[in-house]
């Protein structure tokens, strides 16, 4: 991740797609060559969207849920290869970013100040919602990184509130990134049924309009996301959408915009920046 060292400029927040498993580091399925190329190019180019190089990363991955928001507070977290059935070489990927126990403690302090219980985990490793996209975004693995879990129950208002508690970090040089996928129906992804494509299109249109709405209205719409057109057809279970709630909450009153749009197997996928 190139750029200047942080000098007090407020960082934006992001909701990014992390693809499917280690998709960027293996051959595409026959007949679908290049399906991840545009997403990979977006992730590699994300540092160019920053005002300056952050001092640290706080990443909320769709692949970690806990009873309370929980931070990894190890000084040198390992990788957690939480995908299955992929080529052997994808289990030898490395991304040795240092942890940041002080930042983990700061996150817990901000949550406590907002009246929220939290936890810490000194043993867990970065899951593929972190290391797969950040192998492209931050291949040097030099930035201290803390991973933050989702909270069991996946309540959208709770995750927006978690994000709001973390707003001060943006003025402290921390880049907050929600890592998920704006369309996550694995059964519907390759389905030829035109109804699946229409539902995905409707939800992506709604999601983009919501992310770009007035921040107060944005929060209300995201809280009630399951009523959106195509919502449950796009997210039978919402864990891949909830990192957006944290990123949008951490945006505070800053506007949002779509910064990436593509189609994977004919289904629209988007990424958003706030601030």
From TrEMBL:
Q: What is the enzyme's class at the highest EC level? A: oxidoreductase
Listed CDD domains: 45_DOPA_Dioxygenase
Which Gene3D superfamilies is this protein grouped with? LigB-like
EC number assigned by the record: 1.13.-.-
Molecular function terms in GO for this entry? dioxygenase activity
Return the PANTHER family for the record: 4,5-DOPA DIOXYGENASE EXTRADIOL-LIKE PROTEIN
Question: What family, per the record?
Answer: Belongs to the DODA-type extradiol aromatic ring-opening dioxygenase family.
| Protein's name according to its UniProt entry | DODA-type extradiol aromatic ring-opening family dioxygenase
Organism annotation: Marinibaculum pumilum
């Amino acid at each position: 991740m190139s750029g200047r060292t942080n000098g007090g400029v407020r960082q934006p927040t992001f909701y990014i797609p992390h693809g499917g498993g280690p998709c960027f580091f293996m051959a595409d399925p026959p007949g679908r060559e290049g399906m991840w190329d545009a997403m990979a190019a977006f992730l590699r180019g994300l540092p160019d969207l920053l005002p300056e190089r952050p001092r640290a990363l706080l990443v909320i991955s769709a692949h970690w849920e806990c009873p309370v928001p929980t931070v990894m507070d190890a000084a040198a977290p390992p990788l957690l290869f939480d995908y299955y059935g992929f080529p052997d070489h994808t289990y030898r990927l490395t991304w040795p970013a240092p942890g940041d126990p002080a930042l983990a403690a700061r996150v817990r302090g901000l949550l406590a100040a907002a009246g929220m219980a939290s936890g810490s985990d000194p043993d867990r490793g970065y899951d593929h919602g972190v290391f797969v996209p950040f192998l492209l975004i931050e291949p040097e693995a030099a930035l201290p990184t803390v991973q933050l879990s989702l909270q069991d129950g996946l309540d959208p208002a709770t995750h927006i509130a978690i994000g709001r508690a973390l707003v001060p970090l943006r003025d402290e040089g921390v880049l907050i990134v929600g890592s998920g996928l704006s369309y996550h129906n694995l059964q519907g992804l390759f389905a030829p049924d035109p109804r699946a494509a229409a539902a995905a299109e409707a939800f992506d249109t709604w999601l983009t309009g919501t992310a770009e709405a007035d921040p107060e209205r944005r929060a209300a719409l995201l809280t009630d996301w399951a009523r959106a057109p195509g919502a449950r057809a796009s997210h039978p279970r919402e864990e891949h959408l909830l990192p957006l709630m944290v990123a949008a909450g951490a945006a505070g009153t800053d506007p949002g915009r779509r910064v990436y749009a593509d189609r994977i197997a004919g289904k629209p996928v988007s990424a958003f920046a706030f601030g």
